[in-house]
Design a protein that fits this description.
Length: 191
């Protein structure tokens, strides 16, 4: 059961990387330093004080940058592949009792996939907001992403199965809404 929970923690934290890249890493560092999270061999550096400081600074810079319209869209082009890499790394850092091949396969597929799905959904939402509001609605999306990343990271550590359930609800609900809105925009655009 502990292995299943560690996989759920990893996937939940990876999905949170899709909202904000550094928030889950900061929360992981805090949880590791406080003894609430055990990291896999080779990933103890995440729970070090230098990493904590680096993640805190990176989080502040990332959060601030997403409140600047149009810069946030530019950041998405960099954040999308970075979120997939971070999601894979986060999942690998939590899984302990697997062979390296199985661990990294699961980390890349489940962790990177979860981060990529969430990041893709937020990129589409921000793109539609940029077009629909000229970028002035983007701070609302940035706030929702920050709250989502923070809450999902905390829930992933404290209640991993709940985090996995929340991820599935998010992907279904918001993915469905975004694809419906996108289809509506396509039918309204003259050919």
């Amino acid at each position: 059961m502990e292995t299943v929970l560690s996989i759920c923690i990893g996937i939940g934290l990876s999905a949170a990387c899709g909202f904000r890249l550094f928030v889950p890493l900061l929360i992981m560092s805090i949880a590791s330093l406080s003894g609430h999270l055990t990291l896999a061999h080779g990933f103890a550096w995440i729970g070090s004080y230098p990493a904590l400081v680096a993640f805190a600074v990176a989080t502040c810079l990332e959060v601030a940058a997403y409140y600047v319209p149009w810069i946030d869209n530019l950041l998405d082009s960099v954040a999308t592949p970075a979120a997939i890499i971070a999601g894979s790394l986060v999942t690998a850092s939590i899984i302990t009792d697997f062979s390296p091949f199985l661990k990294w396969s699961l980390a890349i597929i489940a962790g990177g996939g979860a981060a990529g799905m969430v990041q893709g959904t937020t990129v589409m939402a921000r793109g539609m907001s940029s077009v629909g509001t000229g970028g002035f609605g983007n701070p609302l999306i940035a706030t929702a992403e920050l709250v989502g990343s923070t809450l999902l990271s905390i829930v992933a550590i404290l209640a991993p199965l709940l985090a996995l359930g929340l991820l599935l609800v998010f992907v279904f609900f918001f993915g469905k809404k975004i694809f419906q809105k996108r289809a509506k925009l396509r039918t309204q655009t003259p050919a």
